[in-house]
Design goal:
By secondary structure, the protein is of the alpha/beta class. Helix content is 49%, strand content 9%. A five-stranded parallel beta sheet has the order 3-2-1-4-5, sandwiched between helices. It starts with a helix and ends in a 19-residue tail after the last helix.
């Protein structure tokens, strides 16, 4: 069933992501005009133009990202000691890393920076990374394969890192990591992932009865400038794609019972606070 969910989610997202929908609607307008449905074609083309203009000038992605990024405290109070620190993968471009034979990170690299800083702050804590290959193309290496050389380059070669390399999505991140680490109920674990992704991740940890302290990073919305006009179509479309993916993921995970709550926050029972 997990494989069916993985494949279905990838295929569905390829069809309904904002950029894919935009292309599909444009092509539909073209074919309507081509085959003589001029009124319908012009109407659909006009809607595409209006949608492109709205996406280009308004920070729509910020409007839908902020409710996710506000669910957990940006700089939570940290305890004196931690039993473990776990970071979710998604910050290494494995295909580019394989191509150039050099580790390449992406826009979520703040996860790595936070992992490095907290590993130094808590020298006795267990360190864990979870991330395999999350794409349908299985030709690239596992993301976890890149962590040992990264730790060396970061000056943390002396720290052992538990590597989970089989997961393909966030749900499997948690399932396989729990099997690998066998955390005790009394242990205090800190979770690092992107702020917009944190509600979905925490929901899965809650469902698996693994209490964590959320440490969100990689904030994308500019909450001090939520009302602004700017002409950045490509940038806005990319951020809209990322934000809408999280909302769709929340819905899918909740409906399939993979998360304990639709939209967890800092008051959730399984969230550790100090």
């Amino acid at each position: 069933m997990d494989s069916i969910f993985f494949w279905a989610s990838k295929i569905l997202w390829a069809l309904v992501s904002p950029d894919s929908l935009f292309v599909i609607l444009l092509l539909s307008a073209y074919f309507l005009l081509l085959f003589g449905w001029r009124r319908s074609g012009r109407t659909l083309l006009g809607l595409c133009c209006l949608g492109a203009l709205v996406i280009a000038v308004l920070p729509i992605a910020d409007w839908i990202s902020l409710p996710l990024e506000n669910r957990f405290e940006a700089s939570p109070k940290l305890p004196d000691t931690l039993d473990g620190i776990i970071v979710l993968g998604g910050f290494i471009d494995t295909h580019a890393s394989d191509t150039w034979e050099q580790i390449q990170t992406n826009e979520a690299a703040e996860r790595l920076l936070a992992f490095q800083a907290l590993a130094r702050q808590y020298p006795e804590a267990k360190l864990a990374f979870t991330g395999g290959i999350g794409s349908l193309d299985r030709s690239s290496s596992n993301e976890a394969d890149n962590i040992p050389p990264l730790m060396t380059s970061l000056g943390l070669a002396d720290r052992a890192v538990h590597l989970e390399s089989q997961s393909r999505n966030t749900y499997e991140n948690v399932i396989y990591s729990k099997e690998m680490l066998a955390p005790r109920p009394t242990e205090q674990w800190l979770l690092i992932t992107s702020a917009a992704h944190m509600p979905r991740a925490v929901g899965i940890f809650c469902e698996q009865r693994w209490p964590v302290l959320p440490y969100p990073v990689d904030f994308r919305s500019d909450r001090e400038r939520m009302l602004r006009l700017e002409l950045r179509f490509a940038e806005h479309l990319l951020t809209l794609r990322q934000a809408s993916r999280e909302w769709l993921g929340l819905v899918a995970y909740y409906l399939t019972g993979k998360t304990a709550q639709f939209l967890p926050d800092g008051d959730s029972e399984c969230v550790n606070t100090y």
